[in-house]
Amino acid sequence: xxxxxxxxxxxxxxxxxxxxxxxxxxxxxxxxxxxxxxxxxxxxxxxxxxxxxxxxxxxxxxxxxxxxxxxxxxxxxxxxxxxxxxxxxxxxxxxxxxxxxxxxxxxxxxxxxxxxxxxxxxxxxxxxxxxxxxxxxxxxxxxxxxxxxxxxxxxxxxxxxxxxxxxxxxxxxxxxxxxxxxxxxxxxxxxxxxxxxxxxxxxxxxxxxxxxxxxxxxxxxxxxxxxxxxxxxxxxxxxxxxxxxxxxxxxxxxxxxxxxxxxxxxxxxxxxxxxxxxxxxxxxxxxxxxxxxxxxxxxxxxxxxxxxxxxxxxxxxxxxxxxxxxxxxxxxxxxxxxxxxxxxxxxxxxxxxxxxxxxxxxxxxxxxxxxxxxxxxxxxxx
Length: 382
Known about the structure:
Elements: H1 2-5, H2 9-19, H3 26-37, E1 46-50, H4 57-65, E2 73-76, E3 92-99, H5 107-119, E4 121-129, E5 135-152, H6 159-164, E6 166-169, H7 174-188, H8 194-209, E7 216-217, H9 233-250, E8 263-264, H10 267-285, H11 290-304, H12 316-323, H13 327-339, E9 343-349, E10 353-358, H14 364-380
Parallel strand pairs: 1-5, 1-6, 2-3, 3-5, 7-8
Antiparallel strand pairs: 4-5, 9-10
Helix pairs in contact: 2-8, 3-4, 9-10, 10-14, 12-13
Protein name: DUF3987 domain-containing protein
Organism: Chryseobacterium joostei
InterPro entries: P-loop_NTPase
């Protein structure tokens, strides 16, 4: 309680997340922590972490989960299509569920998981025998109340799942890779105090344990309008309001309650929510998913540096070597960018290979600045 009562709570949590071993990913780690911390609160949230294979999705999820009370964490690598229907009534209540590889779930398992997220229960009609041996129909219901963190390499394939989740793109930059390699080497060399890592995790776990469930009243909820450019705006707005409420709940030892015992959100909670949640807003605004956006920005930067500038024609091999990625990953990005008409094959053949041209030079940073300024203006008027 003492930790939760101190000023600058989110900054202090972020320091503990770094101390626990999560290097970089400053925006993502705080967003995931807030989402995960709400697993037994009224404002449930779900995160879908997207990135290419080997870029640290599972490591990030596991690191956040280790900062939660371990008795409430369900860490799964595989879910069969019928298993979710066979849990006992309260086994999926007040849990944090991790799915390491959402790509491994078949269509029926995905459907069941989506229903759990939306309806908070699963119902199935089964056959059983009564005490006299007669075959009868039986309705079985599994009640659910959980937050979830899932990982995927192909977020765009799961449109229905994306709409129910806060989509997060991992940092695939060279700088982040170097930070991770440095940390790995320091740990092997014995230069990192693992006792301090464990202490940070225990403090965060105990902080979550002492949080009480509250209904939150946000007097500023009708004062903030998310950008109309965002896809699935209705659900995004609901997720944002739930995110604000969860930040208020984390600050419950510093917030007032009304006559009905409800926590009252403050301007500070809104400001912090916008700051932390902003990258999730941009992913829903951007036509490209997080990994493809990072790839395309690197591609644009490379092309601009060539003698012919924006008219430079490039091959897939040229880009693959520049970015030091696999042929299959490179092919996936090229296919996506061609389908969305960001690049076009302008010469060559299947046998000789193609040369490509960037045909859509969007300015995501300009759009980001515009949306940030609009939100900042709304916040200033609160």
